[in-house]
Amino acid sequence: MDSILLSIASRLELVQLLGLAVRGVCGGLPLTSDEADALELAVCEAANNAIKHAYTGRPDGVVQVTLAVDGTGLVMCVSDKGAPLEDKQKLNNDLAVARSLEDLPEGGMGLFLIRNAADSVGYKAGEHGNVLIIRKGFSGAKV
Amino acid sequence: MEFEDRIEGGVTVVSLKGQRMDAAVAPLFKSHMVDLIQHGNKRIVLNLEAVDFMDSSGLASLMSSMKTLGGSGEIAVCCLGDKVRKLFAITRLDRGVFRIFGTTTEAVATLAEAPAAE
User: Fold this and answer.
1) Which of A34, A91, A118, B16 has fewest C-beta within 10 Å?
2) Is residue B81 in a domain?
């Protein structure tokens, strides 16, 4: 399995670099343009979550992204060493159609967009930090 | 992120000048919108033609602006590129939350005909 490690300081203005890097990698893989768009968005959402929630906006943390590719798909592991996700249920929440102003979702869209981009999403929190694992299989490949 | 505001037929047209509407710029956008709304701009068209990338924070800043209006006006969007249009569809915000128009002219004409906001 081939892999590459990306790393940024926990600053929101740097997240776009991760997105651009993922887009570049996806360009060399058997993924559609829509799939590449969704994966670029997913890695940005995951990094934003790490910065805003795990590090609570502190700029002195590190967000790392490992991209690993084999013959069947791409795995993106987004890791941080901040606070763990408290409500794991947020990983599975769906978005309802808003019927009124009050129904407009305040949050949770990021994880929804990550799930939308992926075939599977996992999360691990431990003493060495937190990692969100996003897997996308190649179209037509056996996953 | 820079913005260009102009008034057409009683409708405020806000054109975003940056390519990204993401978590890094969403607070600035939200602040700009709150300022506009508090100064009496209740019918607003957002021209997103220049925006190539939007994330959930960008969307959240739009929804927050809509909530600031509190039902006494409207924010519509226009000139969406494919990626941004798909984002609105995936998040279902194109289903009655934001009216989406192909051109600024069409959006302004429609909002200008709406009853005056209280």
Assistant:
1) A34
2) yes
pLDDT in tens, A121-131: 999 998 899 99
If you measure CA to CA, which chain A residue comes closest to B55? A41
- Whole-complex ipTM: 0.91
CATH number at residue B106: 3.30.750.24
Among residues A77, A81, A20, A76, which one has the least CA distance to residue A51? A81
> In chain B, what residues touch A109 (CB-CB under 8 Å)?
56, 59-60, 91
Which domains does chain A show, CATH number per domain? 2-137 (3.30.565.10)
Q: Nearest C-alpha of chain B: how many angstroms from A1?
A: 30
Per-position pLDDT tens, chain B of length 118: 899 999 999 999 999 999 999 999 999 999 999 999 999 999 999 999 999 999 999 999 999 999 999 888 999 999 999 999 999 999 988 988 899 999 999 999 999 987 765 5
Q: State the residue range of the domain holding B87.
A: 3-112
Say whether residue B87 is in contact with chain A using an 8 A CB cutoff.
yes
What is the Cα–Cα distance from A26 to A30, expressed in whole angstroms? 8
Q: Which residue has the tokens 């940005």?
A: A44
**Residues 6 or more apart in contact with residue B14 via CB below 8 angstroms:** B3, B4, B5, B32, B33, B36, B44, B45, B46, B47
Per-residue model confidence as pLDDT tens digits over B52-66: 999 999 999 999 999
Q: Is residue B117 part of a domain?
A: no
B83, closest residue in chain A (CA to CA) = A37
Q: Which residues of B touch A16 (CB under 8 A)?
A: 20, 22, 24, 53
- Work out how many domains chain B is built from and give that number: 1
Q: Is residue B118 part of a domain?
A: no
